Amino acid sequence: VQLVESGGGLVQAGDSLRLSCAASGRAFSSYHMAWFRQAPGKEREFVAAITSNGGTPYADSVKGRFTISRDNAKNTVYLQMNSLKAEDTAVYYCAASKYGQYSSWGQGTQVTVSS
Predict the structure, then answer these.
(1) What phi-psi label fits residue 75: left (phi over 0), alpha (psi between -120 and 50 degrees) or beta?
(2) Distance between CA atoms of residues 45 and 2, nearest Å
(3) Burial bucket for residue 113 (CB in 10 Å: 0-12, 13-18, 19+)
(4) N or C, which end of the chain is more exposed by having fewer CB within 10 Å?
(5) Is the pLDDT of residue 67 over 90?
(6) Please, how many CA atoms are within 13 Å of residue 80, restricted to the half-sphere of its CB?
(7) Digit-coded pLDDT (tens) for 45-62
(8) pLDDT tops 90 at residue 98
């Protein structure tokens, strides 16, 4: 599956953004999908996931502020980000997993939150 993220941008602290990840290929609904992020000088970290049956684990740092969802009819996964903070600034990546590993990755979309 190939993934293309969109929706990043420059916002102020407290604002909201919605990221989208469009997937090409078959059987999108059978994939576990996730968002990761990487801030400058830091390692890539898990943000949120949505499993093929709708489970939604979140990183503690975003719980209550971010919501992941998917539209299988549109082969798209979303990340709604509310109450953004400066520390949310990062490149956000979409990833897909079918057999236990996230083997497909998008190119990333930059999110910058000014304080």
Answers:
(1) left
(2) 21
(3) buried
(4) C
(5) yes
(6) 6
(7) 999 999 999 899 999 999
(8) no
